[in-house]
Structure formats: structure tokens, C-alpha cells
Amino acid sequence: MTSTPRTEAWLSGPVDGVPPLLMPVAHALLHAQEDASHALRDLQTDQIWKDAGAASVGYHVRHLGGALDRLLTYARGEALSPEQRSALRTETLPGTPPAGAAALIRELEGTIARAMAQLKATPPDTLLEPRGVGRQQLPSTVLGLLFHAAEHAARHAGQAVTTARFIRAFVRGAGL
After folding, report:
1. What pTM value is reported for the model?
2. 4 has pLDDT over 70
3. What's the CATH number of domain 17-92+99-174, 2.40.50.840, 1.20.120.450, 3.30.70.2740, 3.30.160.670?
4. Could you say which DSSP state residue 74 is in?
């Protein structure tokens, strides 16, 4: 049985409604969503949150979404809400009951959908507008925040993939 090779997001053509200058951001976010979802496949909830000497798969997926949400808030020129600050403090926690793969994928899909809507609504002539980051209002621009959001998402999706591989190898090796 042969499988159809997966086409990476950046090779799948334009994303409807996303300005051409923001297409790399959109493609990176879609790729991160796909990779993170793939990392979660077939992992049991306890495996998702297992500390294997590194941050858990669950943390990387939850942080990917949380950081993306926060960075996009700054790109809009807004301050973080109390809910966002609270979510930041709990990203490492599995929750009660612990979030499983389906719940984490739904969370991430919602965050990516909101990000795509924001990209579509971002006028290209605002990309170089200054934006402050965090309480100290460190300097950035709309484009700088959007680019960092994409690369940060890609980094954590990659870490989720790698950690999931270690967890799967451990489970196979231990006969669990």
C-alpha cells in the first residue's frame, strides 16, 4: 500500500484572503498546526504530559497556541487580558482532567483559525507600524511580531514532534 506524500503548506499555494506579504506567516502557522497535530496522534493522555527530562508534548502544543495568541494581541496593539495572563501561568499543567490529544488539537485549531483571520484582516500598509511588547513595551513592529509568532510556533511544533518520538520509542522499548 502506498501513501500519498504530504505537501508542505508553503508548497500548497496561496491561502485565500491572506495578503501576499503575510503568506509565509500563514504557511508557517499551518505547517506548525499540522506538525503539532501529527505529534499528538496515538499518544495517550499520560504520554502527552510525560516529563521525559524535557518539557512535555502537551506543554509544547499548549504553549505554541498560547504564545501565538499573545503575540497576535501585541501585533494588534493591545495589552494582554487577565485571561491571557492566567493561561500563561498554566501552560505547563495538564489540567483537571488532563487534556488529551483531541482537546489539545481543538485548542490549537481554534487559535490557528483566529490567527488566520487576523492575518487576513491585517492591511499590508500597517506592517511596519511600531508595536510594544509586554509590560516593558519592548520595541517591535506588526511584521516583527507576526514573523516571530510564525517562527516561534514552528519551533514548538518541532519540539513537540521530537519529544513525541522519544515518548513513542520509550513506550516501545519498555513494552508499555
Report:
1. 0.90
2. no
3. 1.20.120.450
4. H
